Amino acid sequence: MCRSTSEAPLDRTRPDGSPLRTGYTTGANACAAACAAARVLVGLGLDAWEGPLPELTADRYDTLAGSILIHLPNGEPARLPVRVAERRDDAAYASVIKDAGDDPDCTHRAEHWAEVRLRADGAVALARGAGVGVVTRPGLGLPVGGPAINSGPRENIIAEVKKIVPSGADVVLGITDGEVLAKKTLNARLGVLGGLSILGTSGVVYPYSTAAFRASVAQGIDVAHTLGADQVVLTTGGRSERFAMELLPELPEPAFVQMGDFIGFALNHAARLGLRRATVVGMIGKLSKMADGRTMTHAAGSEVNTALLAELARGIGADEALCAAIAGANTGRHAQELVTEAGLVGFFDALCERVSVVLSAHVHGRLRIDVFLVDFSGPPLGRFTDV
Prior knowledge:
The protein has twelve helices and 18 strands.
């Protein structure tokens, strides 16, 4: 069956059979810290924290100021413990400890903090403090020179703070030792310098093992097959699945399966079941990796081959200056921006065709493979139908 847009796998258990714990993203923690500081600033205070502290971060709470209730980007409520919350002259400061659950990364147990000051124009402005990176290259969907706060968390923080301080606020976000922690990430390579990025589409970190995730992909394809579907729509995540459902409204919901990074595994499983067709829907980063023959497209150890994208552009008549720019692009998204700005017609369709050819070869022609390249806001940029 399909996973929800939160991309939680179906089987989440520890080796002893107990369930794996979910956690919260850097964006959710930044939002919690900002909201806690905002409440202190306007004299509302915090709620008490009830019950034991989160088991994986309890030892980091040498002090406990209370708790804060926020709404995550996915709309769910979440209550987080607050380590520090205090007035500092004309500002208020609060911090929380990130609990990434049983799928930790280098930001797990890091202290996320916020400093909030009042303003009178009704706006909520976000700025980077120590430990949050600054964007120095294009291609990340963020202004160069601005803080590395992605759009989802940014909108969520602004909306939640605005509920507390309708008159507006200046919010500085930071992560203790973030500059040191960032050295364990790809941030510098992507052009985010001086700290970590504030990320998180849903606000929740869902833990999974590779085996469990693969099993959930197989189960989704099995359900589609059992219900009589002769094709399956494979998407890279919740957002691309929503776009896919808009593009293919005639298909039943069980035909849509979030396969994450496991494109090779998903296609092989669909072919073994005898399905006739697979439609792959994704954004340029994942599709560029598939075009390069990657059957596992996780970010770790799998970078976009921009030289391949430059060759595709050259093959449809792009001039050498544009090809050189694409070859030197920072990310797949940066390459997309360059192509769009240049008005290079046919590039995205050519990329989709390349993906179809490569993936068809992977399954030895046992599936017809259609491909849609969608933009980050949803509209399809390119498509290829395997007739």
